[in-house]
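Quick start: load a record and inspect it. Here is Microcin C transport system permease protein:
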Amino acid sequence: MGAYILRRLLLMIPTIVGIMAISFAVIQFAPGGPVEQVIADLTGQGDSTGGRISGGGDMLAAGPGSSADISSQYRGAQGLDPAFIAKLEKQFGFDKPPLQRFGEMMWNYARFDFGESFFRNISVIDLIAEKLPVSISLGVWILLISYIISIPLGIKKAISDGSRFDVWTSGIIIVAYAVPGFLFGILLIVLFAGGSFLDWFPLRGLTSDNFAQLSLGGKILDYFWHLALPLLALSLSAFATTTLLTKNSFIDEIGKQYVTTARAKGLTDRQVLYRHVFRNAMLIIIAGFPGAFITAFFSGSLLIETIFSLDGLGRLGFQSVVNRDYPVVFATLFIFSLMGLVIGLVSDLVYTWVDPRIDFEKRDVG
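Running the structure step on this input writes:
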């Protein structure tokens, strides 16, 4: 197993480099880079990104004929001093060839040096740490809730397959899966957050303004009071998917020959279920854990964060792409990709813990 883990760790290097290289290449052809963003901001041709260049104001009044090829490369830069454009390029690192920029970026990332945001005057790692509590709160609790509820419910549905309980719960689950989370979130706001009916839950932030003055119990209640509606809106699809996956996995295992043999030996249904079926049926659930974790933790909350005014990684990533804040875009991509690969390896190790018969090292050799 040690050799297998080492191979997986070594394979992460070319995988990460490949992901970053493809993304970097795509970005080179994307219009409206950070230079254009600042030019549009300074000339009033676009939305403000918050970026400012010291001394830029007195460079705007370029004399006739001072605009050269360097300024004509950027939309909206006609009439600006070429020295000012060159200064922007140097600030954002575009005065170097693409391959050199990519190599320097990967060398810095290998040392976990992610630089600073183009437009926010803060290091990328501090910016991510600032937004992380919201994403942790949403992702971790959604995952726990969906697994704690869905796995027992899926097992119960598999045992009572075809019963009235199974039919009614299946109908509810299918409806829950079909309703988009953001649409259900809007409905919750209308009903319970002061939209048109009740005003029971807050609509902004992760905690109240007086959070620091609350007791420990008050802080816990306040925290979950703010999270109640976002978690409910986000957990629908994850809850439905995990429940149906669990049910189908257990039904498939219950129908196999070894279950009939175990029953013929005098084992009770409960003994058969938890001594034999559970271990095999849970393998597919464990296989889906990394994808469920990444989706819930990083990419599934943009619309929910927007609707409930939560400032997390989802909104940070979206705003960074819109504003062409490349250090934030590439740093988050690198961190999330690395975490996804590590979680995939952890998933394989859990496989071997659940079922010791699985040996990835022998499988690779064969």
